[in-house]
Design goal:
The chain is mainly α and 166 residues long. The chain contains 9 helices and 2 strands. Strands 1-2 form a two-stranded antiparallel sheet. A hairpin with an 8-residue loop joins strand 1 and strand 2. Helix 6 (93-106) packs across helix 7 and helix 7 runs antiparallel to helix 9.
Length: 166
C-alpha cells in the first residue's frame, strides 16, 4: 500500500492520526457531518460557516473516504452522492470533543457557536457516548435505543435555538 492510498509516513500512532485528520478542513467537514447532519456535497459547501471552497471540499471528502472515515454512497445516475460516517468516523467524536473543550478554554468565540460545546462539556462523557450511539443509528443503521425525551442532537439544537432565539 502506498502512502497516497492511506499508509502513514511512519508507524507512530499520532502521526497516522494527524495524517488522516490533521488539516483543519477535514475536521470542519467532520464537524458539519456530525453536528449539522450535512451528508451531501452541496449541503457541506453551502452550510460551511468558514466558507470552504468546492475544490478543497471535494479533496477532503475524497481523503476522508480513502482513510475509511467516511463512505460515499452513489444514489444513482444524476443524483447526489451521500456521505456517511464509518465507525472510524464516529470514533472521531471524542477527538472533536477534546478540541472543542480546548477551544472553550483558550480561544474566543461567540455564544451561539460555543453553546453546543458548553452543553457537551456540562453533560460530559456519557453525553458523548450517547451522541456516538445516535450517529451509529443515523449513519450505520444501528437499532435506535429507546429513550424518553430528546436525543443528544436534538438537545444540542435546542440549546443553540435558546441562545439564538430561533
Amino acid at each position: 500500500m502506498s502512502r497516497s492510498s492511506g499508509e502513514p509516513r511512519s508507524g507512530c500512532a499520532i502521526n497516522a492520526a494527524v495524517e488522516a485528520l490533521g488539516d483543519s478542513w477535514s475536521l470542519i467537514v467532520l464537524r458539519d457531518i456530525i453536528f449539522g447532519d450535512r451528508r451531501h456535497f452541496r449541503e457541506l459547501l453551502n452550510g460551511s460557516l468558514e466558507g470552504i471552497a468546492s475544490n478543497i471540499l471535494s479533496d477532503r471528502l475524497k481523503r476522508l473516504v480513502a482513510a475509511g472515515i467516511l463512505t460515499k454512497e452513489e444514489t444513482g445516475r444524476g443524483r447526489r452522492a451521500r456521505y456517511s460516517l464509518t465507525e472510524s468516523g464516529i470514533q472521531t467524536l471524542p477527538i472533536l470533543f477534546a478540541l472543542g473543550n480546548w477551544g472553550l478554554d483558550w480561544r474566543e468565540g461567540t455564544p451561539e457557536l460555543r453553546i453546543r460545546q458548553e452543553l457537551m462539556r456540562t453533560e460530559g462523557p456519557a453525553f458523548v457516548a450517547e451522541l456516538m450511539d445516535e450517529l451509529r443509528v443515523r449513519h450505520l443503521g444501528a437499532p435506535a435505543p429507546e429513550r424518553t425525551g430528546p436525543g443528544p442532537l436534538e438537545r444540542l439544537e435546542i440549546a443553540y435555538a435558546e441562545v439564538t432565539g430561533d
